[in-house]
Design a protein that fits this description.
Elements: H1 2-20, E1 28-32, H2 35-45, E2 49-53, H3 68-73, E3 79-82, H4 86-98, E4 103-106, H5 137-154, H6 159-184, E5 191-194, H7 200-205, E6 209-212, H8 222-235, E7 239-242, H9 249-258, E8 261-264, H10 272-286
Parallel strand pairs: 1-2, 1-3, 3-4, 5-6, 5-7, 7-8
Helix pairs in contact: 2-5, 5-6, 6-10, 8-9
Amino acid sequence: MRAFLAAALIGLIALTDVLATPVLAGPVHVFVSIPPLQYLVEKVGGAQVRVQTLVGPGQSPATYEPGPKVMAKLDQARLLVRTGVPFEKAWIGKIQAAHPSLKIWDARTDLPLRQMQGQGHADHDHGTRDPHFWTNPLLFKQAAHHLAAVLAELMPEQRATFEKNAQVFGRQLDAVDQDIRGLLAGLSKHDFMVYHPSWGYFADAYGLHQRAIEVEGKSPGARGLAKLIDQLRQSGLKTLFVQPQFSQQNARALAAETGGKVVVIDPLAYDYLNNLRQTAAKIAEANQ
């Protein structure tokens, strides 16, 4: 009997210890609209987050629509990070209505935003505000520190971790900024031609001028293309930069008419740091 009571007491003590041990929450599920934001959240959130991107590689933010499976997966998420790319205008309200407890944070919050090139860019929200802030690594650095505070609201016990992660990532962004400045130093030309005007923040940061084929979210017609051909011939620009999410037909037609070439640069690439370096190198090569 005594042995039985002793065993029962030991079992009760062990159970009490288990119940008293705090249960550690698993990683927070976060959805983001585009791959660069996934990179941002993973850098700041670290092991405390599990991130899924709505617009995947090769998909266009202008035409993307989340399907039923994605909408169902949003039930597991506590945070959605957005930035004003086109599909958000139609879908953010629907997502919020279907998931009222989901926190939605705009990564552009408290950042200095520029006007979208070509007044009134019809495909982007917030009037003519350019959503592509992430192409400037120093603005991305600001967003990282803002994100640390947002994640800390969801996981207060991890605040110090998020702040430290943001500081480490910030130093990496400073290094990339310096690398880009070195790559772009001493260029003979400072204009570069793009199809879709995604690189305005990058251009502003590094003393460049982005010239876009697309105007107000629309491709030029026959007259517009003829005018562009004349402008390109006069400017001496021989490289047309395109992104993989959009049709390259008009760009290739322009290149053929002007003796130029088409080069792909991707503002939506996940590998953020290397992608910015590679983009700077391509622009530098075109502008020597």
